[in-house]
């Protein structure tokens, strides 16, 4: 029986780094049991998408929910952009900068400035050269002649003339800009200005509202973030194992510390109830000891290691393992948290070719066992075989979302066709 319950869902998900819009509105539902492969060109935002799903990266805007519960929600960036855009329009209108003539002259001035910069750097180079030639000539080593020096000096003179000419032209263009701006200002469209000002007031209000909502939502996000991440196992391209810990120690590290934290929290709660006069001795006694927790975690580690065929590596250090073995351990480490979904970011792309198969095999078995997964991969054959759905991400947008047979067999999007022609 196929479950249709949506596990993770994103709406209008965006992420911006500085000025760069890396994710530009991702709407995506990942249902329980689905195996979603994510493909796309380098830099298109695939890793960022995965990292936003488990909130390793806090999105810039949109919604992320798990089990229908909103974990992140913000319109702040969008509202801020809107406000800034209106402010800019007003500024342009008032200053006369948005007149077509002013824009044309600005472009011209920009070109002249570039030219001027180039000339300046040539001048700098030239004068250094002249100085060197003079020194060499004074030493009389013979490799430099008076003609060399004369030629370089003539070059400098002509560059100087060019600079002066460019400066004059730039001054002329700037004067024109000034004049056209004041003409435009005199003709200022008062109605347009009034309209923009009203829009600004509205945008300002919306922005403040979004800010309040964002702050409230972030509080909620921060409160549930650990729980959320615990439910999502993540495997990266590089295994990130601790080399100073054995394989088992690597695997039990996180579950053990979380287990201890849980027990501590539960104990605290019980003691509170005890203070109120309740009899909680039975519950207190039932709490696992540190030793029991460790034994449990180790037993889980052994079971999982067996599952990936590495039970004999339990006590070795990662440095003695091959890349493929390390990656299988990294998968076990993620599984040890008993996650509800596994996120893989190019789990095989750092491996030697002969080791790719053993790692893909483990992932395939997990998939067949019913694990929900999202996997960014360049292994098209694997995606075709294992994925129930493939997303093609390009320039921060899902351009195509279809079952593998359809997406690979009959791609619709032009960029996808181009991408596939390169990787197939
Ligand atoms: N922390 C960051 N700070 C600034 N820019 C970032 C950051 N992380 C990612 N980027 C930029 O975001 C864009 C998308 O990066 P991302 O790693 O998501 O791409 P990708 O699709 O996974 O690419 P690849 O196939 O090469 O792994 C890139 O231009 C990258 O430089
Ligand atoms: Mg990536």
From TrEMBL:
Molecular function, one GO term: ATP binding
Coiled coil region boundaries: 149-213
Record keywords: ATP-binding, Cell membrane, Coiled coil, Membrane, Nucleotide-binding, Transport
One Pfam family here: ABC_tran
Membrane topology: Peripheral membrane protein
Subcellular location per the Swiss-Prot or TrEMBL entry: Cell membrane
Domain ABC transporter, chain residue ranges per copy: 8-420
The organism's place on the tree of life at top rank: Bacteria
CC per GO annotation: plasma membrane
Alphabetized Gene3D superfamilies for the sequence: P-loop containing nucleotide triphosphate hydrolases
PROSITE patterns registered for this protein in UniProt: ABC_TRANSPORTER_1 (PS00211), ABC_TRANSPORTER_2 (PS50893)
Cited InterPro entries: AAA+_ATPase, ABC_transporter-like_ATP-bd, ABC_transporter-like_CS, MetN_ABC_transporter-like, P-loop_NTPase
Family: Belongs to the ABC transporter superfamily.
Protein name: ATP-binding cassette domain-containing protein
């Amino acid at each position: 029986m196929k479950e249709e319950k949506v596990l993770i869902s994103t709406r209008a998900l965006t992420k911006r780094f500085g000025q760069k819009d890396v994710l530009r509105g991702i709407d995506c539902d990942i249902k329980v049991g689905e195996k979603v492969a994510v493909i796309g060109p380098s830099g298109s935002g695939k890793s960022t998408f995965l990292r936003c799903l488990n909130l390793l990266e806090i999105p810039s805007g949109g919604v992320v929910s798990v089990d229908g519960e909103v974990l992140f929600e913000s319109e702040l960036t969008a509202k801020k952009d809107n406000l800034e855009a209106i402010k800019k329009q007003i500024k342009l209108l008032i200053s006369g900068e948005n007149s077509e003539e002013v824009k044309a002259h600005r472009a011209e001035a920009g070109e002249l400035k570039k030219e001027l910069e180039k000339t300046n750097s040539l001048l700098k180079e030239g004068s250094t050269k002249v100085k060197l030639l003079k020194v060499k000539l004074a030493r009389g080593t013979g490799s430099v002649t008076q003609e060399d020096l004369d030629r370089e000096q003539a070059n400098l003179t002509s560059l100087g003339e060019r600079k002066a000419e460019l400066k004059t032209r730039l001054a002329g263009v700037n004067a024109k800009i000034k004049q056209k701006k004041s003409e435009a200002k005199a003709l200022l469209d008062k109605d347009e200005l009034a309209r923009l000002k009203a829009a600004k007031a509205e945008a300002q209000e919306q922005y403040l509202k979004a800010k309040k909502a964002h702050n409230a939502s972030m509080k909620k996000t921060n409160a549930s973030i650990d729980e959320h991440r615990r439910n999502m196992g993540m495997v990266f391209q590089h295994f990130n194992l601790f080399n100073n810990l054995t394989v088992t120690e690597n695997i039990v590290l996180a579950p053990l510390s979380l287990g201890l934290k849980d027990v501590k929290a539960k104990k605290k709660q019980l003691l509170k109830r005890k203070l109120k006069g309740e009899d909680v001795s039975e519950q207190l006694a039932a709490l696992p000891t540190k030793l029991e927790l460790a034994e449990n975690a180790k037993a889980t580690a052994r079971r999982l290691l067996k599952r990936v065929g590495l039970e004999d590596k339990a006590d070795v250090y990662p440095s003695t393992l091959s890349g493929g073995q390390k990656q299988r351990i990294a998968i076990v480490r993620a599984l040890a948290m008993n996650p509800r979904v596994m996120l893989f970011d190019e789990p095989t792309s750092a491996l030697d070719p002969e080791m790719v198969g053993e790692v893909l095999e483990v992932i395939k078995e997990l998939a067949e066992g019913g694990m929900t997964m999202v996997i960014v991969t360049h292994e098209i054959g694997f995606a075709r075989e294992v994925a129930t759905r493939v997303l093609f991400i390009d320039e921060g947008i899902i351009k195509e979302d279809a079952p593998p047979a359809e997406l690979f067999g009959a791609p619709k999007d032009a960029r996808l066709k181009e991408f596939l022609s390169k990787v197939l």
